[in-house]
Amino acid sequence: MYDKEMLKHVLSAYGPSGREETASEVIKSYVAPYADEVYNDRLGNLIAVKKGTSGKKIMFSAHMDQIGLCVVDIDEKGFLRVTNVGGVNPIISIAREVVFKNGTRGVTFFETEKGAKETTMATLFVDIGCESYEEAAAKVDIGDMCIFAGNFVEMGNKISSPYMDDRIACAALIEAFRTMKSEHDVYAVFTVQEEVGLRGAGPAAFAIEPDINISCDVCGMGDIPNCVRMSVKLGEGATVKAMDSSVIVPVKVREFLKNAADKRGIKWQNEILRSGGTDTGAAQRAGKGTFSGCVSIPTRYIHAPIETIDVRDYEAAVALLRAAAEEKELPRV
Amino acid sequence: MDIFKVISDLTTLPGVTGNEVAVAEVLKGYFRAYTDDVWLDVAGNCYARIGNKEGPTLLVMAHMDEVGLMVSDIEDNGMLRLHSVAGVDPRVLPGSEVTVHGKKRIPAVIGAMPPHLLSAEDQKKNYKLDDLVCDTALPAEEVKANVSVGDNVTFALCPPMELKNGFIAGKTFDDRACVAAMLYTMELLKNVKLNCNLIFCGSTQEEGPNFGASCGSWNTAPDMAIAIDVCHAPQPGAKSTDYVEFDQVSLTVGSNVNQKMYEWMCDVGTEMNINWVADPCMGHSGTDAHRMQVACAGVATGIISLPLRYMHTSVEVIHMDTLKNCAKLLAAFAASIGEDWEEKLCLDD
Q1: Which of residues 92-131 of B touch A (CB under 8 A)?
Q2: Given the residues A20, A194, A271, A315, the one annotated as active site
Q3: A194 is an active site residue
Q4: H helix runs in B272-319, sequence order
Q5: Is B140 exposed, middle or buried (CB count within 10 Å of its CB: 0-12, 13-18, 19+)?
Q6: Which B residues, 64 through 93, put their C-beta within 8 Å of a C-beta on chain A?
Q7: Domain limits at B336?
Q8: ipTM for the whole complex
Q9: Is the minimum CB–CB distance between B4 and chain A shorter than 8 Å?
Q10: Chain A: closest CA distance from residue B131 (Å)
Q11: Whether residue B280 sits in one domain with residue B211
C-alpha cells in the first residue's frame, strides 16, 4: 500500500517552474532520512544520493516544477493580468481557484465581451478580491506566480489532482528511493524547469555523468472518448517509453526496463508519446551523452487541473524504478 | 572499391532514427578495411580513426539514420497504426511497400481509403498519417505475437536501381550515400600521409533530435568538423535558389559554417579542379554541423553536400560522379591540413 499522506503532501507543494524551493524542501524531508547525501545544485535541482559499491551510477529524474501563471500587471481595480508558465491552456484556465506562494488566494475568469472559447492569456485575469492597485500590490508583486488550487479526489482506483504532472512521479521516485537496495550509486534527481523547456535535467546529468538515466514522468493515453489514437491505457501498468518529441529511447534501454519488470512480474506497457518532451531527452544529450530511458505513469487530462491517474499504474512505476536500481547489469555500449 | 555495392549494402539495412545498430555493425566491418581503430559510443555513433594521432582532430560525419516510422497501435483486426519517428512525409506513403521490424521482418503495405469511397472534397486532400494503415495481411494473433508498439517500420529494404547515365535511385541515400562517400574518402587516403588526426563517424539521429552529432563532438573534441550530407538537386517545381546542379559539389556558406573553413574548402575544390558551388544557408543547415559547431568550446565546421532529388522517399536519386567528387574534395581537404592549420582558421587577419 502506498504512502497516501506523503503523496498528498508532494502533490500540493507549491513549485511553479523557476520557483521550486518549497517543493524541493517538501521532497527533501521525505528522501533525506534515506540518503547518504542531499543537495541542491546551482539550478535548484534537488539531488539525493545513496552510495553503492559497484562503481557505477544510476540516475533517476522526475521534475518537481509545475505549470502555473505569472503576474505581469496589476490594474487600478486590483485585477491581475498573467502570462503562462509552461504549457497552460487559457480556455481551461478560466473559472479556477489559484493560490500564490504566500497563501494569497484568487479565482480566474475571462473578459465576457467575448465568449469563453475565445479566451487567450491576454483576456484571462485573476481576481484576488482586492479593490485597488495598492491593496493588490501589497499582496502580490509583478513576477509572482500562482498555481491551480485543487483537491485530492479518489474515484475507485483513480485519483485526480491538479499536478500529477509531475508530482506523481516525484512521489513514485520518493517511494522507490526509500526502499531500493542498489549496488550502484543512486542519484534521485528532482529537476527544475522541465515545463519551460527541459532545462534542469541536462546540467544534472552533465555533472553526475551517470551510466544510465531513468526519467519518470506522466504520459498521455488513448482510453477516453474520441481522443487522439494512442495505445496506452490507464490501469494497464507503468509504461516503458519508446519515444516522445524529445527522445528516441535506445532499444537496449527499453529492453533493460522490460526485463527488470518481467523478472518481478511488474505490469508494463509500451509508450509512444505523440506530442511533448521529457527530461529523458535533455539527460540523453548532456555532454558526452547518456543512456536514457523513461518510465511513465499514464495520465488523463494532462495540463488540466484535474489530472487523473490509476493507483495501480503508480504502484507499478514505483516497483519498476526500484527494479531498475536493483539490476546488477546496466546497459553498455 | 565498388561504390554502388557499398551503397546497396548500406541502404538495404534498417536504421530508423534512434535505432541504427544494424547499420553501425556493417559500417564497422567496412571501416576495419582501413584501420583497426574502430569504436562505438552511447549514441550509437560508429567511428574510425586514421592519420596522425598527435595532429589536430578533423571529425567527419555522415549520418546513418533514415527517416522512418514506429508502430503506435495494433488494432483488434491486426492492422498497424504508425507514428513518424522523424522526417516521414505521409503524402508519399500510400501504396508503399514497407518492412515491419518486429520479432521477425514482416513485409507489409501502406493502405489508404480508395478514391471511390471518398467524397469529392476529400479526394482533393492529402492523406495524413492517421488516415493510413500498415497491412501485413497476417491474422491478428500472429501480428500481436510478433509486433509490438515501438517496433520500427521502414520502406521495403530494396536494393537501389541503376538509372541511365550514372544516376541511381533508391531508399536512404540521405545519408548513407554520404557514408559510402566517407568510405571512398578513406580509400583515396589509403596511401596518403596525413598530418591530422582524422576521425570518420557514421552518426545517429540526424533526422531527429541530433543526438549523434552532439554526443560525437563531445566524445572526440575535434578542432575541425565536416558534415557530409545531401542537398536538393534540380527537380520539377523547385526554385533555382533551392537547389544545386547535379554535377556540382555543394559547399555550404552560412551560419553553421566557419567562414575560414569554407574558404579553405573552396580553395581545395578549385585546386583539385572539382566542380563545386557555394550554397548559402543562413540559420539551421539541417545537418550534423548544426550541433557540432556549438559542442565543447566550439568547433570550426564545414558542410559538403551531395545533390539529390526526391528527398525522404524510397526513390532518392543521386549521381555517382558527384558522390566521388564529394569524396575527392574531402580527401584533399584532410590532406591539406598542415602545421599552419590554426593560422588558416584564425578570424583576426
Answers
A1: 130
A2: A194
A3: yes
A4: 289-292
A5: middle
A6: 70, 72-74, 81, 83, 85-86
A7: 3-66+171-345
A8: 0.94
A9: no
A10: 11
A11: yes
Q: Which residue has the cell 598542415?
A: B338
On the question of pLDDT at B348 being above 80, the answer is: no
Facing A289 at nearest CB: one of B21, B41, B149: B41
> Which whole number is the average pLDDT over A146-174?
97
Q: What are A296's three cell numbers?
A: 511513465
Distance of CA A133 to the CA centre of its chain: 34
User: Average pLDDT over chain B, rounded to whole?
Assistant: 97
Q: What is the pLDDT of residue A1?
A: 78
Span between the terminal Cα atoms of chain B, in Å: 42
- Asked whether residue B305 is domain-assigned, the answer is yes
Look at residues B98, B21, B109 and name the one whose alpha carbon lies nearest to residue B65: B21
Per-residue cell: A180: 531500493
Please say whether the beta carbons of B198 and B334 come within 8 A. Answer: yes
Q: B140 and B201: one domain?
A: no
pLDDT digit string (tens) for A218-275?
999 999 999 999 999 999 999 999 999 999 999 999 999 999 999 999 999 999 999 9
Statement to judge: residues B83 and B150 lie in one domain: yes
Q: Does the structural domain A4-66+163-326 have CATH classification 3.90.870.10? A: no
Nearest neighbour of B209 by CB, restricted to A281, A287, A290: A281
First to last CA, chain A: 38
Helix (H, G, I), strand (E, B) or coil at A87: coil
Cα–Cα distance, B238 to A232 (Å, whole number):
42
Q: Do B73 and A288 touch (CB under 8 A)?
A: no
Helix (H, G, I), strand (E, B) or coil at B293: coil
CATH H superfamily, domain A68-148:
Peptidase M42, domain 2 (2.40.30.40)
Contact between A328 and A256 (Cβ < 8 Å): no
Q: What is the pLDDT of residues B1-49, one digit of tens each?
A: 999 999 999 999 999 999 999 999 999 999 999 999 999 999 999 999 9
Q: Which residue type, as a one-letter code, is found at position B126?
A: N
Distance of alpha carbon A316 from alpha carbon A117, whole angstroms: 38
Distance CA A254, CA A89 (A): 32
Q: Could you tell me where in chain A the CATH 3.40.630.10 domains are found?
A: 4-66+163-326
Inter-chain CB proximity A291 and B21 less than 8 Å: no
Phi–psi pair at A238, nearest 5 degrees: -65, 160
Report percent pLDDT > 90 for chain B. 97
Same structural domain for residues B198 and B78?
Answer: no
B113 and B233 assigned to the same domain: no
Indicate whether B163 belongs to any domain: no
Domain for residue B225, yes or no?
yes
Residues B329 and B185 occupy one common structural domain: yes
CB distance B17–A248 less than 8 Å?
yes
Please list the residue range(s) of chain A that carry CATH number 2.40.30.40: 68-148
Vertex A272, ends A269 and A274: CA angle to 5°? 145
DSSP per position, A21-75: HHHHHHHHHHHGGG-SEEEE-TT--EEEEE--SSS-EEEEEEE--B-EEEEEEE-
The answer to whether residue B207 is domain-embedded is yes
Residues of A in contact with B41 (CB under 8 A): 288-289, 333
Q: A16-29 burial, b for 16+ CB within 10 Å, e for fewer?
A: bbbbbbebbebbbe
Q: Which residues of B touch A247 (CB under 8 A)?
A: 209
Number of domains chain B is built from:
2
CATH number of the domain residue B80 falls in: 2.40.30.40
Q: Are residues B54 and B73 in the same domain?
A: no
Q: Are residue B229 and residue B277 in the same domain, yes or no?
A: yes
